[in-house]
Amino acid sequence: MLLFGLFAEPVFEASKHGSLWPLPQKVQISEVSLKLTSSSFRIVDAKASSAGPSCSLLQSAYRRYYEYMFGSAKKQWWSKNNRRSDPSDLSELQVWITSPDSECDGYPSVTSDESCEYLPFLVHVMFNGGVQSGLETFSQLVFEDEYGAKSINATIINDFPRFQHRGILLDSSRHFLPIKVILANLETMAMNKFNVFHWHIVDDQSFPYLSRTFPQLSEQGAYHPYTHVYTPADVKMVIEFARLRGIRVIPEFDTPGHTQSWGKGQKDLLTPCYSGSKPSGSFGPVNPILNTTYDFMAQFFTEISTVFPDGYVHLGGDEVDFTCWKSNPDIQKFMQQQHFGDDYRKLESFYIQKLLDIVTSTKKGYLIWQEVFDNGVKLKPDTVVHVWIGGGSDKEMSNVTAAGYTTILSAPWYLDYISYGQDWQKYYKVEPLNFEGTDEQKKLVIGGEACLWGEYVDATNLTPRLWPRASAVAERLWSAKSVTDIGDAFNRLSLHRCRMVE
Amino acid sequence: MSVVTSGRYTFPNYTLVFFIFLQLGLHSVEGVWPLPQSITSSPERYPLNPQAFYFTYGSQSAAQEGCSVLDEAFKRYFSLVFPDYSSGYGFLRFSVDKPFTVQVSVGRDDCDSYPDEDSSEQYTLSVSAGQASLKAKTVWGALRGLETFSQLVYQEDFGSYYVNKTEIEDFPRFQFRGILLDTSRHYLPLQAILKTLDAMAFSKFNVFHWHIVDDPSFPYQSRTFPDLSAKGAFHPMTHIYTQSDVRRVISFARMRGIRVLPEFDSPGHTQSWGKGQSDLLTPCYSGSSPSGTFGPVNPILPSTYKFMATLFKEVSSVFPDSYIHLGGDEVNFSCWKSNPDVRAFMMKMGFGADFTKLEAYYMENIVNITVALNRTSIVWQDVFDYHERIPKDTVLHIWKGLPASYAAELSAITKAGHRVLLAAPWYINHISYGQDWRNYYTVQPLNFSGTEEQKKLVIGGEVCMWGEYVDATNLTPRLWPRASAAAERLWSNEKQTSDVDKAFPRLQDFRCKLLRRGIQAEPLFVGHCKHEYQGV
């Protein structure tokens, strides 16, 4: 039992699982306590491991977790040789990558295995995707006594995530988020074993992504062309920082709606709205009837496919308002030519299908918001459908999976909606597979995402608004279905929160 | 309202001029928050050069150099007026600008006193070529004027500073404009409190209501009863306020014209007190034997009142303000009911089974202790609700309910002749999705049935940030700029500020100003500020 004894929460009691979060699949904590001394403790590659000192990803993870557990090396110099290690010390953590390919220089992907087995003295992981979670778990087992000495109880853990896709969506368009904030968030995601950063990078309000092919998009469409943009170097930094923590970065370029800011830098991209027989001066969604639109999209998504290494791109497709399309005489004519009648969903489908073909040609898979599926767009079988609409999401999950599509769930986890009190419990109690469907259908649910939309969120309040509320989602997506004891969760989460605050 | 009288000054109605200002002025002059009672400004503007900018005392001013409050304020406001300026680097000066002088005159040398319930915060500010003249009765009024002046200065895209020709006459609508912080549910580090005081001054709040102790912890380190925090704080060393911490808060607040009102809430909300003071709390009984748990303060023992008298004597010597908040809310009677000694006492006193009488008996004793210490008591409305025999000068603090019920309470309490403080509509620890600042802004504190005399008894309002879900990690963005909405309601003329949509862009501007000043104020809606918050 780990007793931190620091914070006297009114109903707080120590959990038998200490501060582990999210709870591992199998864990046995013994009474045997081992000391850890900063001067002698090392994290090393196991002899049989397929990864060695040349694996910079592992080495930097070792150093990160060493510093995380003991503070930075500079703070530690005085304690060197302070005490000799004795047999009850734990002097080494061995990391054994058992798969032949350690994936050291690769990016985490949708197929990365994050399972990990942890025996006393040894973290034994299949792929490096598991190193992040294994080290995180190890560090969560380490506790400090009243005099600051570190110990760990002999423990056996066998762990793997319940769902493959465990994401956080941040919105950098409603408010610009400084790089520092995004990196800090990735760090906290790693502490919670989240593995997907869904970067809703642009939207109506601003276009902070600095495109090499179309620099005018951010020059004209960002809140400020220098101070409120993400340069290619910034984006690279985010991706590498995430990679080192086993986190995928999936960018979202949402079209044809949610594109007001695109129009400022790219003429003729958006549909001119009409008032009566004249253009009103305002613009609607992307103009789906012009060839130039698709030329632009082809070039743009070619760039995106090289900048973002992940195998998937999120294409949005939500909340398309048809009124502007309806008002435009050229669009009306096009509708007639195409025999779409008055069904503007067909026009939307027309656009999306062309876009999907473009993105497919860049060798990327894609995610789309649920409306694209609802509106009957023909999708490739490996499309991931993202369910977000609050009412009736169970039915939607049923429908999407019945149609054979892979899906991720966000509807119950819109964390930008705040309310008074412990709303984390609401997020915690969600059971993602609680919809009608066969076992085969349930297997199509690859995970979920907590969404923090940016209408009311920027650097000033992002961190306290997201954490530890998102941690509730993290455990739901990682731990076994049977982990539902809200009291035990409160006790562990209280301690986990203190750890995050440090 | 056509004429407002405040002391010997009379202010004409500037409503018409004000609206002209709103329509024409916003592009060149960013607004002042909270809105001054009267402001006229012209497009004529004057450049300000940080190297030729001075604060001085007017020759007729009662306070001169050496006045701690104003000397410090001049330093503070110099960097607030010129946020880019760092004295380490000499500016290249292409032209010799004429100097600009802000001349401050006050009618009284109250530099070494504390702001109190009667302190005038009235000021007039006149900005013209080469100089601004700021006149106030007190240094506290001068502080408010300096804040206003700092908000009139704006920076152009190329970095130069300007101020427009402006005339302002200003004074607060309500005398008491407070913020409650709760340092018991969560400990707030000293820095978080000082930061809040800084931000309070930017919104012209003038009372810091320090709900310093409560059930969960007792962080106040008492000189007389050190065990209270040694045993009742979350941690006896790291989670306490030492005497010097408290002094620092009081002096930091004084420099900003802010009163510090301590609350030692009893007889309920005292679980943490019991840890360090045995026999203070009532032992609860389960059947005929003590259950091991404790209830509210034990009102039947003389030792209780002796303890309280000693504690409040200390409190009144540590906190200079003439008010003390005594709490008195949410007393749970079940423990008292279970205790045979308490029941025997009830019999003896002839209270029957009416425990509100026991509570009233207790509060009366406590109020008398503070009266003897020459302090005015503030108590939560509960005390009035069960007991009308409290001294007339006790201030009642309304915290419960929706507009209809707090309006009724305002009526009833003022009818009984008590002064009253309104907090019910401003419990901003209750968060919800969207722009809830609009609710705080549209409150009408005097919209209750009562005579003019009754309305005068409403001394002000208070924004409460209870600490169940708040600590240093989220305090600032949760408090600001939402509390600023209440600040304008409490300072400005209600008729001039009744339109919440017109307030929106001004509050957005003000929020960007807060960011520029290092206050982590959260956004009102989508958009951006030129200088975003850069911390993590």
TrEMBL record, chain A:
Residues 163-480 form the Glycoside hydrolase family 20 catalytic domain. GO terms for biological process: carbohydrate metabolic process; ganglioside catabolic process; glycosaminoglycan metabolic process. The keyword NAD does not apply. It is an enzyme of class 3 (hydrolase). The keyword Lipid metabolism applies. The active site is at E319. It holds the Pfam family Glyco_hydro_20. It is found in: Cytoplasmic vesicle, Secretory vesicle, Cortical granule; Lysosome. It catalyses: Hydrolysis of terminal non-reducing N-acetyl-D-hexosamine residues in N-acetyl-beta-D-hexosaminides; beta-D-GalNAc-(1->4)-alpha-L-IdoA-(1->3)-beta-D-GalNAc-4-sulfate-(1->4)-alpha-L-IdoA-(1->3)-D-GalNAc-4-sulfate + H2O = alpha-L-IdoA-(1->3)-beta-D-GalNAc-4-sulfate-(1->4)-alpha-L-IdoA-(1->3)-D-GalNAc-4-sulfate + N-acetyl-D-galactosamine; a ganglioside GM2 (d18:1(4E)) + H2O = a ganglioside GM3 (d18:1(4E)) + N-acetyl-beta-D-galactosamine; N-acetyl-beta-D-galactosaminyl-(1->4)-beta-D-3-sulfogalactosyl-(1->4)-beta-D-glucosyl-(1<->1')-ceramide + H2O = a beta-D-3-sulfogalactosyl-(1->4)-beta-D-glucosyl-(1<->1')-ceramide + N-acetyl-beta-D-galactosamine. Its EC number is 3.2.1.52. SUPFAM superfamilies: (Trans)glycosidases (SSF51445), beta-N-acetylhexosaminidase-like domain (SSF55545). Residues 20-115 form the Beta-hexosaminidase eukaryotic type N-terminal domain. Keywords: Cytoplasmic vesicle, Disulfide bond, Glycoprotein, Glycosidase, Hydrolase, Lipid metabolism, Lysosome, Signal. It comes from the Eukaryota. One of its GO terms (cellular component) is lysosome. GO terms for molecular function: beta-N-acetylhexosaminidase activity. Its main location: cytoplasm. Belongs to the glycosyl hydrolase 20 family. Hydrolyzes the non-reducing end N-acetyl-D-hexosamine and/or sulfated N-acetyl-D-hexosamine of glycoconjugates, such as the oligosaccharide moieties from proteins and neutral glycolipids, or from certain mucopolysaccharides. The isozyme B does not hydrolyze each of these substrates, however hydrolyzes efficiently neutral oligosaccharide. Only the isozyme A is responsible for the degradation of GM2 gangliosides in the presence of GM2A. During fertilization is responsible, at least in part, for the zona block to polyspermy. There are 3 forms of beta-hexosaminidase: hexosaminidase A is a heterodimer composed of one subunit alpha and one subunit beta (chain A and B); hexosaminidase B is a homodimer of two beta subunits (two chains A and B); hexosaminidase S is a homodimer of two alpha subunits. The composition of the dimer (isozyme A versus isozyme S) has a significant effect on the substrate specificity of the alpha subunit active site. This is Beta-hexosaminidase.
Automatic annotation (TrEMBL), chain B:
It is an enzyme of class 3 (hydrolase). It is found in: Lysosome. There are 3 beta-hexosaminidase isozymes: isozyme A (hexosaminidase A) is a heterodimer composed of one subunit alpha and one subunit beta (chain A and B); isozyme B (hexosaminidase B) is a homodimer of two beta subunits (two chains A and B); isozyme S (hexosaminidase S) is a homodimer of two alpha subunits. The composition of the dimer (isozyme A versus isozyme S) has a significant effect on the substrate specificity of the alpha subunit active site. The lineage of its organism: Eukaryota, Metazoa, Chordata, Craniata, Vertebrata. The active site is at E330. InterPro entries: Beta_hexosaminidase_sua/sub, GH, Glyco_hydro_20_cat, Hex-like_dom2, HEX_eukaryotic_N. Residues 174-493 form the Glycoside hydrolase family 20 catalytic domain. Disulfide bonds join C67-C111, C284-C335, C512-C529. Its EC number is 3.2.1.52. It catalyses: a ganglioside GM2 (d18:1(4E)) + H2O = a ganglioside GM3 (d18:1(4E)) + N-acetyl-beta-D-galactosamine; Hydrolysis of terminal non-reducing N-acetyl-D-hexosamine residues in N-acetyl-beta-D-hexosaminides; beta-D-GalNAc-(1->4)-alpha-L-IdoA-(1->3)-beta-D-GalNAc-4-sulfate-(1->4)-alpha-L-IdoA-(1->3)-D-GalNAc-4-sulfate + H2O = alpha-L-IdoA-(1->3)-beta-D-GalNAc-4-sulfate-(1->4)-alpha-L-IdoA-(1->3)-D-GalNAc-4-sulfate + N-acetyl-D-galactosamine; a ganglioside GM2 + H2O = a ganglioside GM3 + N-acetyl-beta-D-galactosamine. Residues 1-31 form the signal peptide. Belongs to the glycosyl hydrolase 20 family. GO terms for biological process: carbohydrate metabolic process; ganglioside catabolic process; glycosaminoglycan metabolic process. This is Beta-hexosaminidase. Its main location: other. Keywords: Disulfide bond, Glycoprotein, Glycosidase, Hydrolase, Lipid metabolism, Lysosome, Signal, Zymogen. GO terms for cellular component: lysosome; membrane. Residues 32-152 form the Beta-hexosaminidase eukaryotic type N-terminal domain. One of its GO terms (molecular function) is beta-N-acetylhexosaminidase activity. The keyword Lipid metabolism applies.
